[in-house]
Amino acid sequence: MNVPKSLSEQVSSATRLLAQPEVKLLGITQPLGEDATTVEQHIERAARLCYRTEGKMTASSSIRFLRGIILRGHESVLEHASATFRVLGGSRAYTHEQVRHRLLSFSQQSQRYVSEEDFRAVVPPEIAKDPEAMEAFVELVEHARRAYAQLKGLRLRNQDARFVLPNAVESGIVISGNFREWRHVIRTRCSPSAQWEIRRICGLMLRELQRHAPTVFGDLILDEKTWTVTHISETIGCKDAQQRVRKELAELEGRGEPPKRILRRLDDGELYRALFHVRRCLSPGCRETFAACGDLK
Ligand SMILES: Cc1cc2nc3c(=O)[nH]c(=O)nc-3n(C[C@H](O)[C@H](O)[C@H](O)COP(=O)(O)OP(=O)(O)OC[C@H]3O[C@@H](n4cnc5c(N)ncnc54)[C@H](O)[C@@H]3O)c2cc1C
User: So which residues are the catalytic ones?
Assistant: First the structure.
């Protein structure tokens, strides 16, 4: 077997080994009509019908409005917008995890119609950094490649020859989903317990989504070193969150306004973060503070 000796030789000579996935946003909901020009206004327009407050929409109202919707958990309105991604350079191990998300829609490269004779393999970073592991990996991948070619040489069809392929085989996939489902998938798959590959791919998707819908995906903070996501409500402590919310409530009271009007102040990112914290936190102080905001349903 002709396996290069050094790791750098292996990586540079084995052009069929892949390290990086390529995530491309192929499409995203574009509104029609003069009252909405962005995808976020498209959601706002739909959601405002519930309250018949379409007339209150302004060029900048979607930040406050959508934050209020997300904070209160009324995420069904996010289903009015969708995005489609193409992922190349992910492994079959990754795609198998991704397709478990039943509310997404998929078109995946077929191993029946497309020959895998020249397949590329995704190398896990933990294997790539260990020369001994890398040598075993390359050897097995090349062995699978030869076995596949041998079966094809025996006139077996792709659908049968593919049984010798490893999980590392690259597979192309196109995925569509609505924004509510993307939020769910990204939070589930960018958690520290998810696998590195899906974490990275979903992180790259989040980066794109935040570019086009910064408010809808703005409460998810992406760490591009680990490709993990933290929720904004986890980035503030109970004491600070309670103080910030109480300060706002006191100001409302001073003006004789009901506490519920706090939702109208959600343009303020710090207040949004604090209010989200007290809404989600189970500590008695946070629960009391959230209750003081009135009925936010
Ligand atoms: C860290 C990690 C480890 C995992 N390990 C394993 C494992 O060892 N073995 C394994 O088999 N899987 C494993 N999974 C996959 C996991 O069990 C789920 O299949 C996958 O995360 C899809 O989640 P979901 O059902 O929430 O999402 P989706 O299918 O995206 O659905 C979104 C939401 O819609 C609702 N929904 C969807 N379908 C239905 C339905 N039929 N009925 C009611 N409500 C529905 C639910 O609220 C669901 O949360 C793992 C996932 C993670 C993140």
Answer: 189
Percent of the chain exceeding pLDDT 90 equals 91
Q: Which atom of ligand 1 is nearest to the CA of 198?
A: 53
Quick check: pTM over 0.85? yes
- The number of residues making up the chain comes to 297
What are the pLDDT digits (tens) for 114-147? 999 999 999 999 999 999 999 999 999 999 999 9
Report residue 131 as tokens.
């020369």
Q: Which residues contact ligand 1 via a Cβ below 6 A? A: 100-103, 181, 184-185, 188-189, 193-194
pLDDT digits (tens, 9 = 90+) for 24-69: 999 999 999 888 999 999 999 999 999 899 999 999 999 999 999 9
Q: For atom 1 of ligand 1, which residue has the closest CA? A: 194
| Residue 173 backbone phi and psi in degrees, to 5 | -150, 140
Residue nearest to atom 34 of ligand 1 (CA): 103
Residue 11 has pLDDT above 60, yes or no: no
Check the CA dihedral 297-188-209-236 and report its sign.
Answer: positive
| Alpha carbon distances (Å) from 172 to 96, 118, 143, 169, 240 | 12, 14, 22, 10, 46
Pocket test for ligand 1, best of 78, 100, 190 (most atoms within 8 A of CB): 100
CATH no. of 25-85+172-231: 3.30.1360.170
Domain ranges of the chain: 25-85+172-231, 238-291
More confidently predicted of 296 and 75:
75
Average pLDDT, the chain: 93
Residue 97 CA to ligand 1 centre (angstroms): 10
* Centre of ligand 1 from the C-alpha of residue 85, in Å: 20
152 CB neighbour count, 10 Å cutoff:
16
Please state the atom number of ligand 1 nearest to the C-alpha of residue 102.
29
Residue 8 has pLDDT above 50, yes or no: no
